[in-house]
Fold:
Amino acid sequence: MKIKEDIKPVSYLKSRSAELLAQINETHRPVIITQNGEPKAVIQDAESYEKMANSLNLMKILSHSEKDIQKGRTIKQETFFKQIEDKLLKTKKRK
Structure:
């Protein structure tokens, strides 16, 4: 983060929004918007936001998986694939 470039007052956002959006989309760095000297919002380009959201979702999945492992809620890989295969065969027979 480049502090002087990445922290802007709300007045800057109001007067130079197009310029600020161009900066964000070019650098892919979020900008912190302040009001009365206090941080109030973060503006981020859509691509970086999407990557961050996907990363957080993956971390949640991994966290749940780790809890399942700790609690012994696991099955062998061979058993898992056999269950899937059986379900697919049942679905195929119904058609």
Observations:
- Strands lie at 7-9, 31-35, 38-43.
- The chain has a mean pLDDT of 93.
- The first helix runs from residue 3 to 6.
- Residues 48-94 form one domain.
